[in-house]
From TrEMBL:
InterPro entries: Glcn_transporter. The lineage of its organism: Bacteria, Pseudomonadati, Bacteroidota, Cytophagia, Cytophagales. One of its GO terms (cellular component) is plasma membrane. The chain crosses the membrane at residues 26-46, 58-77, 97-122, 134-154, 174-194, 223-241, 253-273, 294-313, 333-357, 369-388, 408-429. Keywords: Cell membrane, Membrane, Transmembrane, Transmembrane helix, Transport. Pfam families: GntP_permease. This is Gluconate transporter. Belongs to the GntP permease family. It is a multi-pass membrane protein. The keyword Cell membrane applies. It is found in: Cell membrane. GO terms for molecular function: gluconate transmembrane transporter activity.
Length: 433
């Protein structure tokens, strides 16, 4: 009976978001109440659980996600993202331009949220298509694959960061392992897969062609790379330092993800703002816009936390975990499968990852599975087969002026390759950890 209630709750969530077009945050709250009532929880306990789920989920994430959004916004607004992309493409040259675009998407994708990176990089892709007569999908797919992988696998992006917090994983270790998994995923789904799309007669819309940007207004290459990649360097550095000095309170303080992002935003404020003659008010205005853009993501994450709390307090989550634990399927594959199923049904990678995490959490808490790898496994599952219920599908279709069939052949298959390769990478790492 309890399993039927869970299935009914997920079904209601799908209907609310996709059919009735209810806001995702409100949908999670309504489904949490529905599930609590069906499980027989007292109404006051349901209300308390919702508040606890909201608080516990946001408590460890607000600083990370908000500062991450601020960093990404400044990297984009200052021209650092354009400087990075131009530098990498010049480095690889025309012959290997698809590999340059892949690496550009990956570097840009670390600090930028997916939609921001997508819209920011599209003009660059189309300008290269026009200038060098490259097949549009051969230019676009490698970069989009990289942006997608960063979005699904790597903290401080919303879903991976939330999963790290929920599973009590180590953000630095997850980032290092995520990069290891990401590399083969973006190579297969990017330059290699893109070669199979060269024959498609795609004509991107001229309205999305790039506008000329004054190169003199861009920050230096050094400043651009330092600002964009500083969180990565600091997370990796502090993770190594923790191994060398496990009892150092200073290292533990700096290694905290919130402190990493705070230091990163201070560095970016200086190198991309103050050092270039920008007034502090101008930089703060950029940060204010970033907070507005990330607000709904925070609410969706908080809403997913309420459903997780209802499943935990009712004991159903443990029951599901016991049932799943008895299946002859590896826990990491189970996490991937649950996220993939929800992704195909709902479309949102973030919601898929967070919802799956709430159901798989007891398996992680009981031990026997690497929490960092579970973050990556669920992240890979959350990218599985994007189709007509995903906004990313339509963004790609409209910008590249594709038919639905062509979008399925390119975008949807690219996401599927990313997801399956990600799972394979996670399972391979599991053999050594």
């Amino acid at each position: 009976m309890t399993l039927l209630i869970v299935i009914a709750s997920l079904g209601l969530l799908v209907l609310l978001i996709t059919y009735w077009k209810v806001n995702s945050f409100i949908s999670f709250l309504l489904v949490s109440i529905f599930a609590g009532v069906c499980f027989g929880l007292p109404l006051p306990d349901i209300a308390k659980s919702i508040q606890k789920g909201l608080g516990d989920t946001l408590g460890s994430l607000v600083v990370i996600l908000v500062l991450g959004a601020m960093l990404g916004k400044l990297v984009a607004a200052s021209g650092a993202a354009k400087q990075i992309s131009g530098t990498l493409i010049d480095l690889f040259g025309l012959k290997n331009i698809t590999w340059g675009l892949m690496l550009t998407g990956f570097v840009i994708g670390i600090p930028l949220f997916y939609n921001v990176g997508f819209v920011l990089m599209i003009p660059l892709i189309f300008s290269l298509v026009q200038q060098y007569k490259i097949p549009p999908l051969m230019a676009g797919v490698p970069m989009m694959a990289s942006l997608s992988v960063a979005h699904g696998f790597l903290p401080p992006h919303p879903s991976p960061a939330a999963l790290v917090a929920q599973f009590h994983a180590n953000m630095g270790e997850t980032l290092i392992l995520g990069i290891m998994v990401a590399i083969p995923a973006i190579i297969l789904a990017g330059p290699i897969f893109a070669k199979t799309l060269a024959h498609l007669p795609v004509k991107p819309l001229k309205s999305f062609a790039a506008a000329e940007v004054e190169e003199t207004n861009l920050p230096s290459k050094t400043a651009s790379f330092i600002a964009a990649l500083f969180p990565v360097f600091l997370l990796v550095g502090t993770t190594i330092a923790e191994v060398q000095m496990p009892d150092s309170s200073v290292v533990k303080f700096i290694a905290d993800p919130a402190m990493v992002m705070l230091v990163a935003i201070l560095v970016a404020t200086y190198v991309l703002g103050i050092r270039r003659g920008k007034k502090i008010e101008e930089v703060m205005n950029v940060y204010g816009e970033a907070v507005k853009e990330v607000a709904m993501i925070l609410l969706i994450i908080a809403g997913a936390g309420t459903l997780k709390e209802i499943l935990l307090i009712s004991g159903v989550s443990q029951e599901i975990a016991s049932y799943l634990g008895g299946l002859p399927i590896h826990p990491l594959v189970l996490g991937w499968m649950m996220a993939a199923i929800i992704r195909v049904c709902l479309g949102s990678a973030t919601i898929a990852g967070l919802t799956a995490a709430g159901m798989i959490y007891p398996l992680v808490a009981a031990g026997g599975v690497n929490a960092n790898l579970m973050v990556l496994s669920i992240g890979a599952g959350s990218l599985m087969f994007s189709h007509v219920n995903d906004t990313g599908f339509w963004l790609f279709k409209e910008y590249f002026n594709l038919t639905v069939k062509e979008t399925l052949r390119s975008w949807s298959l690219m996401e599927t390759i990313v997801s399956l390769t990600g799972l394979a990478g996670v399972m391979l790492l599991d053999q050594f950890l």
